[in-house]
Design goal:
By secondary structure, this protein is α/β, with parallel strands linked by helices. It is about 35% helix and about 20% strand. Helix 7 packs across helix 9 and helix 8 packs antiparallel against helix 9. Pfam families: Glycos_transf_2.
């Protein structure tokens, strides 16, 4: 039977957070009808035991073939809905959050809505992003200059509803028609860059991503942790995304700048950057799930 909202979650060793998320959904949905599908990507902690004990979600056991694949699987297992609520397991939603997001989503030409997100301590979580460009590859956020800064940290940018390039994918409400027309999330990324790619592809097709401060949520962040492997995936996927959108020549320069950026980070003490540098310059050292070890410039 169709519902207003199809809530979809992908878990991986999420026992510390998943209960808070699921418990927040009834108040967050207000009067909307909804379903909840949780795809577990091979957790080896107590996540599945927690999920199996609940009656308010459909649980799908899966091998870990990536976050985007898990999301697409969850959407396929959901009933028909006008909108898809993408959620990280370490998020929780404020009361009436989803109706407020849906009110924005129903405006013409909008495909993705991102709420105002706070950190666990209550401070603003800067989840809004500018699109990837050559100038923004160097991690120069400390300048505060938009030409060099992908991450938007100015609190004034979070005070009013406005269109954005993309937002961190911890809590996103997505038009179901758009999701279907775009073929869902691109599973080739495995982990990271899926939400960037989706919003940019939506924009290419004439659909906007919009931020609204009227809806609130909390995101703990790092619920599954970051390792040198996941950091490497994040950086490699940024290069792959840029290549797919800008072509080989510009992507070659982008990759060279990425290598320099990671060397700089490593020399400043970021211990996860050295393995990333190696993976950037040695294709065979790249994480196998990305399928990006057949060419020097990852694709």
């Amino acid at each position: 039977m169709p519902v207003d909202i199809a809530a979809v979650v992908v878990t991986y060793n999420s026992e510390r957070h998943i209960t808070d998320l699921l418990d927040s959904l009834p108040a967050a949905m207000g009067e909307l009808t909804y379903s909840t599908v949780v795809v577990d990507n091979g957790s080896h902690d107590g996540t599945l035991e927690i999920l199996d004990a609940r009656q308010d979600c459909i649980v799908v056991r899966s091998t870990n073939d990536g976050y985007a694949a898990g999301m697409n699987r969850a959407v396929r297992r959901s009933p028909d809905a006008s909108a898809i609520l993408i959620l990280n397991p370490d998020a929780s939603l404020d009361a009436e959050c989803v109706p407020r997001m849906l009110q924005v989503l129903r405006k013409p030409g909008i495909a993705v809505v991102a709420p105002r997100v706070r950190e666990e301590d209550g401070s603003l979580s800067p989840t809004l992003r500018r699109g990837p460009t050559m100038g923004r590859v160097g991690g120069l956020s400390f300048t505060g200059w938009p030409v060099f800064t992908e991450r938007i940290e100015d609190p004034r940018e979070y005070e009013a509803e406005h269109e954005i390039d993309w937002a961190v994918g911890a809590i996103l409400l997505v038009d179901a028609e758009c999701y279907t027309k775009l073929g869902g999330m691109d599973e080739s990324y495995f982990l990271y860059s899926e939400e960037t790619d989706f919003s940019l592809r939506a924009k290419d097709a004439g659909w906007a991503t919009v931020y609204t401060p009227a809806a609130g949520a909390m995101h703990v962040g790092g619920g599954s942790g970051e390792s040198s492997v996941t950091h490497t995936m994040k950086i490699l996927n940024r290069v792959r995304l840029y290549r797919r959108r800008s072509g080989t020549f510009l992507a070659s320069i982008y990759m060279a700048l990425t290598v320099l950026t990671e060397v700089r980070r490593a020399m400043l003490g970021h211990d996860k950057s050295w393995p990333t540098v190696r993976a950037l310059v040695v294709p065979s050292a790249r994480p196998a799930p990305l399928g990006a070890n057949d060419t020097f410039l990852p694709r």
